[in-house]
Q: What sequence folds into this?
């Protein structure tokens, strides 16, 4: 079994990347389709659906970025608290 090494800095980095990806996936520019072609309406409809999907994925990725940021802060807080407790016990030895 492989161990997973999670650090607060790693979570913060991933949160930043997810935030960046959220902005990228949510902005899907539809290409210009020449009018007058029989398939123009179908292509426009597909691009509209892609835009809706991109927006939904962007929201989800943004929420993931927020959750990762919260987790990173929690990791840091827990590590700081644990370090303080260990320092307190070490002084008793």
A:
């Amino acid at each position: 079994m492989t161990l997973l090494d999670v650090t607060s800095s790693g979570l913060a980095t991933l949160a930043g990347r997810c935030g960046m990806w959220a902005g990228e996936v949510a902005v899907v520019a539809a290409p210009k389709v020449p009018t007058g072609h029989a398939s123009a309406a179908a292509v426009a409809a597909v691009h509209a659906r892609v835009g809706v999907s991109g927006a939904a994925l962007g929201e989800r990725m943004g929420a993931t970025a927020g959750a990762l940021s919260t987790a990173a802060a929690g990791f840091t807080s827990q590590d700081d608290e644990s370090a303080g407790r260990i320092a307190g016990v070490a002084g008793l030895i």
